[in-house]
Structures are given as C-alpha cells and as structure tokens.
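Sequence in, structure out. First:
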Amino acid sequence: MGKTIYYIEDDDNIRELVVYALKSNGFQAAGFMDARAFYKGIKSILPDLILLDVMLPDEDGIDILKKLKKDPQLKDIPVIMLTAKSSEYDKVVGLDLGADDYVTKPFGVMELVSRVKAVLRRSKENEKDDVIEADGICLDRKKHLVFADGEAVELTYKEFELLDYLMRNKGIVLTREKLLDTVWNLDYEGESRTVDVHIGSLRQKLGQCGHLISTVRGVGYKFGKK
C-alpha cells in the first residue's frame, strides 16, 4: 500500500486534480476543503505527508502548520505548503515554522508529485543517525535538542535544520546556494540574506561553540575546527 497523502485545498477543481494524480502515482490520497474537515480526517488516520494551502476559508494554512508542529503526535509529518504568494519572505515564514517545501501557484501537477516523492525520500533518510556529536556540540534529531558544551541551546526549526546539515557535512564548504536549496528548498535568485541572518543567529546562540561555523569568503560556510 502506498504512502498516505492529505491535501487541504478549498478549490474543488485543483483538489480533485491533485488527488487524482497522487492516486495515479501509487499514493493513498484524500482531499479536504477546509481546516475543519482536515482535523476530523487526521483523527482517524495519520498521513505520511500533508499538502497544505495557505489561503483557506476557515483557518489560515500558517496557523494550521503551527498547530501541527506543536502537536507531539503530528510534528514529524512532512508538510509542503501551496500558495499563490511568491515572495521570499512568505516562503521563509512557512519554512521557518517547519514546512519541508514550498510550491507556488500555478504549479504543474507532475512537478508537485515529484516534490512529494523527494520530501518523502528525504524524510526517510533523516530517520537515520538521529544523534550526531562533534566538537562539543550534540544534536538529537528525534528529540529536537541541541547541547553546546553541555548547555541546552534553544533554536528555531530552521536554525536546527541548518546546524544539522552543517554538522553532517563537517569540514566541507557549503555554498549559500546549496544551503538554500537543501535547508529551505528555495530556488536561488541573486543575493539573499536568508542564510547569512540564520548563520549569525546560530553562532550567537551556540556561544563559545559559535566559532565552529566559519565563513569562507566569497563561497559560503563550513562547520568544524580550523
């Protein structure tokens, strides 16, 4: 039996088309026209992935995402946001709250199916090696905890994902483009301060361990002792 996908979308035509495409590609798929119907559905069967439209008639998709990420039973379900909004700010808001990907309308249905498959593959890979330790920093993916020199560090969702990716690529220089593509799933277009701002915040929160994230001028960032 294929993975179960839930799609919350108030446009009947779009919802039915996407659900049909998902079923045609071997998924178990169900569509919901609003938040109320979705909450009722998720009580009976937990999906493997959620496609979530931002603009809904009864509750904003961002608010739904916040509730999902606060619920211990639901917080690890991958979420792909779908919306007509296309600015980088809107994308970062959703992704920083814990969304795994962001697709803007209008979108190609087969492209969306490919994004679903990619996020599910990544989620499966992320189940491996839940705890990683390096140079005084301990990161636990399953418990979503970080310790620096034995002290607990409070990170936002994307700061956590960024640190995790840097640590798993210790000693490797990662470009801003690569970090945007992997951690935020954003197409890189010109200059973006998104990575730099998160790196700065991450260094500050890590305290004396912050120096482990070094800047490689003109290229990007690297984790590890110099």
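Second:
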Amino acid sequence: MSDIAAEAQRSRRTVYTYFKSKEELLEASIEMEVNKISSAITKVAMSDLSPDKKIIRLIFVRLHATRSVIRRNSRLSSEYFNNTWIIEHLRHTFDSKEIALFRSIIAEGKHQGIFSVESPDLAARFLHFCLKGIEVPYINGIVNKNIDDKFMNHFTERVILNALGAKTENK
C-alpha cells in the first residue's frame, strides 16, 4: 500500500480511507476497467449498424478493449492471469450483460431475416464463452500471430456469420 500511495502521491492513510486492503483496491481497479469495456460494447450494441455488422464490431471492440486494459495495467495483467477466481467473481455482472447484448443483437438479426440461428439465447452464450476462451491467446498475440489484421477481421467475420446462419453478402 505504501508503493500505491507513493505512486498516487497520497499518504497511506488517505489510501486506507478509501480501501481497507490492497486486494480491495485491486478489485475496485478491475471493476472500473470492466465498466469501461461494458460501456464500449453497449455503445456498439445500441448503434444503428445492421445486426451482422454490429455483432462483428462488438466482438472486436471487446477484444481490443480487453487487450488494452491488460496492457495498460501491468498489475491487473498479473492478477488477470494468475487469479482467475477474482476475475470471474468481478466479471459476473459484465458476463451477464454481454450475453444479453449478444442475445439482443442475434434476436434482432433473426427477426430481420439476417440470421437463421435456432436459439438466440444459446448462440449468445456460446459466442460469449468462445470470446472468453480466446481472450488470453488474443491478448498475447498467439491467435493472430503472423496474420495481418485485415485477414484476421475477414476470417472472424466469416466464422461468426456462418455460425449464425447469416444471409448477407458477407457470408
């Protein structure tokens, strides 16, 4: 806490006024960053894009924002990779919200005849958990190693839209 107080140019006493422990401060930091990501993906979900464009944009905004947060916060990065229980606990609300956003976009696309997926709810959950599984490899650059961004974007778009049974020219 002394190091944190010095970095923040505050006294330890001031830091302890707001946070009882280093863990509590870490949780507050992670929660703040998760809220930033949540705001970014909500903005995409509420945009005027068509559902097929919206879902792809949301995926990339989410992946890029998560990578940015982890890279910007080396302490968070350490906790992110080493204590998944804390992260899962703090992400619960975010995860539920992300699934709801995916479900809404997929249902909208199904209603408009863009997607022919049988269950928007199952598709939303599946997509969410696939993204969670790809986070660490994406952050570390393993997924897109030696692949340019344009190809990566096109490939991702084809995989996701095909999985949703998209009836667009992007398929």
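Remark: The radius of gyration is 19 Å.
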